[in-house]
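Listing S7. Sequence submitted for prediction.
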Amino acid sequence: MTNTSISLNRRNGAMPVSVAEVRSVPALAAKMRQIDTCALPSPYTEIFNTRSLSPAYLVQNHVGAREVQTAVTTIAQVADKLRRMSRAYGEWQEFDIPAFFDLWPEHAPLLVHVQERVSTVNVTFFADLLLPSFQRAEQYWAREFFPAYQTARPPLNTSADSSSFTSHFLDFEQPKMRAYWDKLIAVMGETRRALWNDIDFLAAAAGGEEKTHWQWAWRGKGPPGLDRRLLPPLQQLPTLTLGIEFPLPASRQPGRVRRLRRTWEGDVRRRLKR
């Protein structure tokens, strides 16, 4: 699996901006491991600052148990929608993602991915994006932490001679990133534990698939000078990513008319031979 991102060159000569699909904790962790090689990122979740999520998905932006409590309710509703989607999908001539999921049109492409294959439909809902703790961590990583690292270029040995940029990164930016990261992992873990008895959530949990998508980022060593606690093993990363796969309605399957015609012609020939 290769990384999928778009690199945009700024006209003023500044370093290029990479618009990467950071839609889950594994995705953010993968990008953290590329901090010394990839282009300056643009915050993926910034769109939620421009227009808040629709009320059905608005997780309370509070510390502690309140964020977990509202996240549990919201994600349980998403899992229920995914459960019902297999029956509803064939009723639409062209499936309307924002209408079915009650999302604003500009948010739907970020949160939901629907892929029709030859005979199946694969749906992924990136529920990590709903958490305010994820949005804060991702935006701080893109806006502050990444450029600070690129400027500081911290040495492997933090006791080595370093510039004021390096000292600022090690003393301020990196501890702040760790605080955002630790908060995110704590909220994610508590939310998953609270959903552990929810049958719809368990049936739709797609964390394994999401980790597999990003496992290429763990093949090499992590970037130098970065706190190892920001470079956890892939297996330890929690995610609320949900997914479902169901049969593509027969009427939508490519080549179905051709197959039916061949079957009909074969039946006609057999009847004529009698």
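Caption to Listing S7: primary sequence and predicted structure tokens for the chain studied. Residues 5-247 form one domain. Strands lie at 5-8, 17-20, 40-41, 112-116, 120-125, 242-247.
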